[in-house]
Amino acid sequence: MPLDKPYKDIPGTTIFDAEQSRLGYWLNQFCMSLMSAENRARFKADERAYLDEWAMTEEQKQAVLARDLNRCIAAGGNIYFLAKIGATDGKSFQQMAGSMTGMSEEAYRAMMVGGGRPIEGNRYQSEWDARQDARPAAEAKKETK
Question: Would the pTM count as exceeding 0.90?
Answer without folding.
Answer: no
